[in-house]
Design brief:
Strand content: over 45%
Largest sheet: 6 strands, antiparallel
Number of strands: 10
Structural class: mainly beta
Number of helices: 1
Helix content: under 10%
Shape: elongated
Distance between the termini: 101 Å
């Protein structure tokens, strides 16, 4: 029995998910960040608990439990509404927080704002990917061809 347990131990440990990714508002050296943490409570469960850790030091540091999601389907968009108001969206669920006073609003107001990036699973590693803003192409005016001179 003991040998069987020792052989199964690596299998039990590989199923666990407990990681996080951060969006640094002021750049990597700054003290203003939004971190999403996902943790699997039981190795046999496919569900992870997703939390937001918000910090704007020295005034704000707080943790909010957001939702439970399948481990490999955690994808949370971050939108900026300006004035330190952030909206997080996963499917039809939305949360709005404000890092000036470290609060979570009971209801989401507005459309959320500009997309900043996405927290997601990338081959088993949890990452934050910044949104790529593509410039809108400027149409080139078409001038009619000149009539040939005779």
């Amino acid at each position: 029995m003991r040998k069987t347990l020792i052989l199964l131990m690596p299998l039990l440990l590989t199923a666990c998910v407990d990681d996080s990714a951060s969006y640094f508002v002021d750049g990597k050296a700054g003290s203003h960040a939004l971190t999403v943490h996902r943790a699997q409570k039981y190795f046999w469960s496919n569900v992870t608990t997703v939390e937001l850790i918000m910090q704007r030091l020295p005034d704000c540091m707080r943790r909010f439990e957001l939702t439970d999601l399948p481990a490999d389907e955690v994808e949370i968009e971050v939108l900026s509404g300006g004035d330190n108001v952030w909206t997080l969206r996963s499917g039809s669920e939305m949360w709005q927080v404000e890092s000036q006073t470290c609060t979570m609003y009971p209801d989401v107001k507005g459309d959320g704002g500009e997309l900043i990036g996405v927290f997601r699973d990338d081959g088993g590693k949890f990452v934050f990917e910044e949104a790529v803003l593509e410039p809108v192409p400027v149409p080139v005016p078409v001038t009619p061809a000149a009539a040939p001179v005779q």
